[in-house]
């Protein structure tokens, strides 16, 4: 019998997270596993419970919700041998989409978990670690760190109660474009430095964020690389035209957009433009620049 930690976001999927969490617990228990509820009153509270559960010797951690719950799971299990299971019932579910896991199908998701637990089978995937330069502590993320207009849109979308999925990001985009001016950046990647006014700077471990915005469509979660997307100083009209192209990923064909592969990235603000917005990763607020991001190959064991 395995001892499994369970963390549920009850507000995921317009409140369907609670029902999904109860069903997940019911089925795991019926299969003979011991389930420990590690959900908390807040994200930080739940993250503390999950980390402590991993330290105390869980056999697996299962998160129920959207990409925010995946973010929590990565921060609990990264660089440990405890595998992570995902029941994706959020509005975006970009990481589940990238890994081929079921979305909005609770029983199918639990079937995957039970099969993986029974066979002791997992997929080792990369995790990205972000911290303030000179500080040892930091955060892990699974998908994409954004530090440009996309981050400002993400932050605004998080504060909107409707509509769902990508439509929420389109609404937030319209709101942010009204006062948009390019930001100032210095991005250091190994031997290359990009210093410019810019519209987008994203550091991607996975291909998408925001419910299907394919910011780095060629990014793979187990290649030991980060895809750094750099977009130059678009005008407001130019930004309005380029951002919708993030959904199919065709923005990469624009001459002012570049992608650089790296294992370590330093993103700093400069006076070449406005101060960049607070960086976001997996839809969660990380903090202001400067930030250092480093990929850790196969740092998370994912139940598949």
From TrEMBL:
Keywords: ATP-binding, Kinase, Lipid biosynthesis, Lipid metabolism, Nucleotide-binding, Phospholipid biosynthesis, Phospholipid metabolism, Transferase. SMART domains: DAGKc. Its cofactor is Mg(2+). InterPro entries: ATP-NAD_kinase_N, Diacylglycerol_kinase_cat_dom, Lipid_Phosphate_FormReg, NAD/diacylglycerol_kinase_sf, YegS/DAGK_C. It holds the Pfam family DAGK_cat. GO terms for biological process: phospholipid biosynthetic process. GO terms for cellular component: plasma membrane. Residues 1-23 are annotated as: Disordered. Residues 1-134 form the DAGKc domain. The keyword Amino-acid biosynthesis does not apply. It comes from the Bacteria. Residues 11-22 have a biased composition (Low complexity). GO terms for molecular function: ATP binding; ATP-dependent diacylglycerol kinase activity. PANTHER family: LIPID KINASE YEGS, SPHINGOSINE KINASE. Belongs to the diacylglycerol/lipid kinase family. This is Diacylglycerol kinase family lipid kinase.
């Amino acid at each position: 019998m395995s001892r499994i930690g369970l963390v549920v976001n009850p507000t995921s999927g317009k409140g369907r997270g609670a029902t999904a969490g109860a069903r997940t617990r019911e089925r795991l228990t019926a299969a003979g596993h011991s389930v420990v509820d590690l959900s908390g009153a807040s994200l930080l509270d739940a993250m503390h419970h999950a980390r402590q559960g991993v330290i105390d010797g869980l056999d697996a951690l299962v998160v129920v919700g959207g990409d925010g719950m995946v973010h929590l799971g990565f921060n609990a299990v990264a660089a440990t041998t405890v595998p992570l299971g995902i029941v994706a019932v959020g509005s975006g579910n970009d990481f589940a989409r990238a890994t081929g896991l079921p979305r909005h199908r609770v029983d199918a998701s639990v079937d995957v978990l039970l099969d993986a637990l029974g066979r002791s089978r997992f997929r080792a995937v990369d995790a990205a670690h972000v911290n303030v330069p000179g500080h040892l502590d930091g955060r892990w993320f699974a998908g994409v760190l954004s530090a440009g207009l996309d981050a400002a849109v993400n932050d605004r979308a998080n504060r909107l109660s409707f509509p769902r999925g990508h439509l929420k990001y389109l609404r937030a985009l319209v709101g942010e474009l009204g006062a948009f001016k390019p930001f100032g950046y210095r991005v250091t990647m190994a031997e290359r430095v990009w210093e410019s006014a810019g519209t987008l700077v994203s550091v991607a471990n996975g291909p998408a964020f925001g419910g299907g915005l394919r910011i780095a469509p060629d990014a793979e979660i187990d290649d030991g690389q980060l895809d750094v997307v750099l977009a130059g100083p678009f005008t407001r009209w130019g930004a309005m035209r380029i951002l919708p192209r993030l959904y199919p990923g065709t923005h990469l064909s624009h001459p002012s957009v570049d992608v650089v592969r790296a294992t370590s990235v330093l993103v700093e603000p400069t006076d070449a433009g406005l101060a960049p917005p607070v960086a976001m990763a997996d839809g969660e607020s990380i903090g202001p620049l400067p930030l250092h991001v480093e990929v850790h190959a196969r740092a998370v064991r994912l139940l598949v």
